[in-house]
Amino acid sequence: QKEVEQNSGPLSVPEGAIASLNCTYSDRGSQSFFWYRQYSGKSPELIMFIYSNGDKEDGRFTAQLNKASQYVSLLIRDSQPSDSATYLCAVSRGTSYGKLTFGQGTILTVHP
Amino acid sequence: SQTIHQWPATLVQPVGSPLSLECTVEGTSNPNLYWYRQAAGRGLQLLFYSVGIGQISSEVPQNLSASRPQDRQFILSSKKLLLSDSGFYLCAWSSLSSGSAWETQYFGPGTRLLVL
To answer: What does the pLDDT look like over A8-60, one tens digit per residue?
Structure first.
């Protein structure tokens, strides 16, 4: 079992729809959870992070965490073609060296 | 604000040649530094991380090595490149003083390496 699993996609949604990206993790000691966006040929950029169970909203993005189910998701409202990218989920155990374990990423395509 | 630089941006090297990739961070002190490799269509593989000058931890055995000669400088090296070393090399930093979740990693622009 992979430590962090994501559906590789591609996930295709129409412009204006809600895109839902999912991530599961195996380590129950995980403390912090991150979502990164990576455009083709570019480096990953942070979208948001979440620590606590529940929802965290930032603009069109909402991260949802359920530690009991070991599940974290990212919702993108009013999806735009510019949201088309690979979305990486990352998990941290909160150690002093700040190591993150990344999933393989989900490719999202938003079509006009 | 903090900035991370990597160079070169692209590199084409023959098999068996040496490698040196450099990463520098500005605007923060005593960051944690990381080297990742991303093969085409694949996820991020952590290669090395460093919590201070001269302190290097290796995540996977390979023909690569890393060094941290200064607080904000991280170097990835190889004495002899293999075809399998081709990929997108990313340097990242994190810091207690980043103003964000302290484990948040911020990535440099990356170096695309092609070994022929």
So the answer is: 889 999 999 999 999 999 999 898 999 999 999 999 999 999 999 999 999 99
Q: Which residues pair with A67 in a beta bridge?
A: none
Q: How far apart are CA B60 and CA B46, in angstroms?
A: 8
CB of A88 within 8 Å of a chain B CB? The answer is: yes
> Which residues on A lie below 8 Å from B5 (Cβ)?
none
Beta strands in B1-116 (DSSP E): 3-7, 10-13, 19-26, 32-38, 44-52, 55-58, 64-70, 73-78, 87-94, 106-107, 111-115
Which residue from B84, B37, B30, B34 is spatially nearest to B57, judged by alpha carbons? B34
Partners of residue B51 in chain A, C-beta under 8 Å: 96-97
- The answer to whether B115 and B107 are in contact (CB under 8 A) is no
Q: Which residues of B touch A (CB under 8 A)?
A: 32, 42-44, 46, 49, 51, 57, 90, 94, 100-110
Neighboring chain B residues of A23 at a CB cutoff of 8 Å: none
The confidence score (pLDDT) of residue B95 equals 83
- Parallel, antiparallel or unpaired: strands A32-38 and A45-50: antiparallel
A62-82: pLDDT as tens digits? 999 999 999 999 999 999 999
